[in-house]
Amino acid sequence: MSSSTEADHGAASSDDAAVAGAPEKASAAGPGSGAPPPELGSERGAAGGEGRSVPRWRRTLRPYLLIVPALLLTGGILYPFGLGLYYTVFDFAASKPQPDFVGLENYRRIFTDSSFWDSAWVTVLYAVGAAAVETVLGVAVALLLHRSTLVGRVLEKVLILPLMIAPVIAAIIWKLMLQPSVGVVNYLLRPFGLGGVQWTDTPTGALLSSIAVDVWVYTPFVAILALAGLRSLPASPFEAAAVDGAGWWFTFRKLTMPMLWPYVLVAVIFRFMDSLKVFDIIYALTEGGPGDSTVVLQIRAYLEAIRFQRYSFGLSYMIVLWAVVYLAAMVLVRYLGRIQNRAAEVPK
């Protein structure tokens, strides 16, 4: 009886020793034990909970899979552009289903055609006029809204309303408003003796009306960018100028505009590039008329390719317009870099 009791006590003591030694073994197998840690990148198996390492080919292929969307997007842009370039060296037209290779003949015809230079001149007038007016008005509106007043905060919310309207819809609305007989603009001007103005029936009036509609639609864009730039300017130079007794005009000319100009130039680049390839506002408002007085390069390309069905000739116009926009963007972006470097030299 006593021997069985002693055996039971011996078994219990051995079990307790095994349990007590388990943590010591676990700690011995810790980070300092030299035991290999679990492999990074292992994945838990669905059955049994066993880990397995990611195959090397998957780790190698994963970075290339991440750039697939960018490659697809780039291909979607370059393929139509390359196809357009290919068509410009032929004479594709509705009247010629079997085109011939003509090389650079389409471009020679463009640069020797007086209508191209007329359209180019109208395009430059439109782009420069619209971008200049929008820049001046946008900066002026931003300076007014920069004051923290209740009216400024309300107008800031209302300012984006023209940007919420499609340009072609805005042009149609303004076309109705500028009608000489039933338009609301002449109705409001009639008490001042200015009723009956032919806004879009003369070459000069049609161009100015198109620029005015562009200004109404896109001036809020410039104002929002300029307002964001004003709110990001450092306060210390203006505080120092106020302590020295500098006037508003001196502060604006020597501090505000040099530091704000990079933001304004970004808006100018966007608006000038967009105005060079304008189509919707002019076509909805005047359809290029009266005559060819408002036919810009984009509308000229549309007329040649769609209305006259000279596809290769119209595509050649588009390639020339792309080259003009690209060169203008390069010049403006380089100028923006110099302005940013100059603004960085202003003491802050």
Walk me through what this model shows.
By secondary structure, the chain is mostly helical. The chain has helices at residues 2-28, 56-66, 68-88, 105-111, 114-145, 150-158, 167-177, 184-189, 203-232, 236-243, 248-276, 280-285, 297-307, 311-344; strands at 43-44, 51-52. Strands 1-2 form a two-stranded antiparallel ribbon. Strand 1 (43-44) and strand 2 form a beta hairpin. The chain starts with a helix and ends with a helix. Residues 1-36 and 38-50 have low confidence and may be disordered.
Please outline what is shown here.
The chain is mainly α and about 350 residues long.
Q: Got a strand count?
A: 2
Count of DSSP helices? Answer: 14
Strand arrangement across the biggest beta sheet: 1-2
| Largest sheet descriptor | 2 strands, antiparallel
Structural class: mainly alpha
Element order: H for helix, E for strand = HEEHHHHHHHHHHHHH
Shape: globular
Q: What's the pLDDT, averaged over the residues?
A: 83
Provide the gyration radius in Å.
35 Å
Roughly what percent helix?
55-70%
Question: What is the first-to-last residue Cα distance?
Answer: 96 Å
Unreliable segments of 5+ consecutive residues: 1-36, 38-50
Q: Per DSSP, what share of the residues sits in E-state strands of 2 or more residues?
A: under 5%
Annotation keywords:
single chain; 348 residues; mainly alpha; 14 helices; 70% helix
